[in-house]
Amino acid sequence: MQVLEREQVQQLQQGKGLPDFRSGDILEVTTVVPEADRKQYTYKGVCIARANKGPRSWFKVYNVFPDVGGFVQHFPLYMPDIVGIKVVGRLPRTKRSKLYHLLQDEGPKHIYQANIAAPK
Q1: Structurally, what CATH architecture does the domain formed by 2-110 represent?
Q2: What contacts 87, CB < 8 A, 6 or more positions away?
Q3: DSSP 8-state secondary structure symbol assigned to residue 22
Q4: 10 Å Cβ neighbour count for 31?
Q5: Starting from the edge strand earliest in sequence, which strands make up the sheet with 58-65, in order?
Q6: Helical H runs in the chain?
Q7: pLDDT in tens, 41-93
Q8: Which residue in 30, 33, 35 sits closest to 118, CA to CA?
Q9: Is residue 85 helix, strand or coil?
Q10: CA distance 41 to 54
Q11: d(Cα 103, Cα 28) in Å, to the nearest integer?
Q12: CA dist 22 to 2, 5, 16, 112, 117, Å?
């Protein structure tokens, strides 16, 4: 079973070209929303968690919106609606694999979505 999962992950990685990232990286995730006439949306935030579980791998992106507050988005890594993942930066001094402690602080230092241009 593990061999089949490993082959499937290799096949999925060849088609996507996903970058290497870990928790603490600031990501721009571009997704296609089928319900909105296949429009592309870019979601930017800090990766607070990542789980490598073969084809069931996932990651969570956290961002603070000025009007709404903190927001966590869960993405399956090999979801067909993900167009691309881009590593923009890195949080300094992150030593943990899960950064859920950032959810308690919704200050302005965690606002990453400001000034995002529409994808072309």
Answers
A1: Roll (2.30)
A2: 19, 21, 25, 26, 27
A3: -
A4: 19
A5: 69-76, 58-65, 39-51, 25-33, 82-90
A6: 2-16
A7: 888 888 999 998 888 889 999 887 777 777 889 999 888 888 889 999 888 87
A8: 30
A9: strand
A10: 26
A11: 19
A12: 23, 21, 17, 17, 24
Q: Which tokens sit at 104?
A: 């308690």
Q: Cα separation of 63 and 69, whole Å?
A: 8
For residue 94, is pLDDT > 70?
yes
Residue 31 has pLDDT above 70, yes or no: yes
Measured in Å, how far apart are the chain's first and last C-alpha atoms? 40
Distance from C-alpha of 52 to C-alpha of 81, rounded to nearest angstrom: 19
| HEC-encoded secondary structure of 90-108 | ECCCCCCCCCHHHHHCCCH
- DSSP type of residue 55: G
**pTM for this one?**
0.79
Domain ranges of the chain: 2-110
Six-digit token string for 18: 């996903």
Q: What is the pLDDT of residue 102?
A: 80
Q: CA 109 to CA 116: how far, in whole Å? A: 16
- Classified as helix, coil or strand, 119 is coil
